[in-house]
Design a protein that fits this description.
about 75% helix; about 70 residues; mainly alpha; about 0% strand
Amino acid sequence: MGEYVVAGKIKRAQRLLRAGTETETIDRALDKVIAEHERNRLTRKANERFVRSGIKIKDVYGKLAG
């Protein structure tokens, strides 16, 4: 059963990624995972810089206060 599940996931990813082969599917999927990780890393880094900057946010609409 495990092999069938994996094969099904690969076929579904192949359609979503519009890849011609299973190898290309896996390569594209890995590229996407790596790119997402890098985006997340950069987002965390930017957020940390923002928080450390000590900038004050003025809540002009009164939506941030709980």
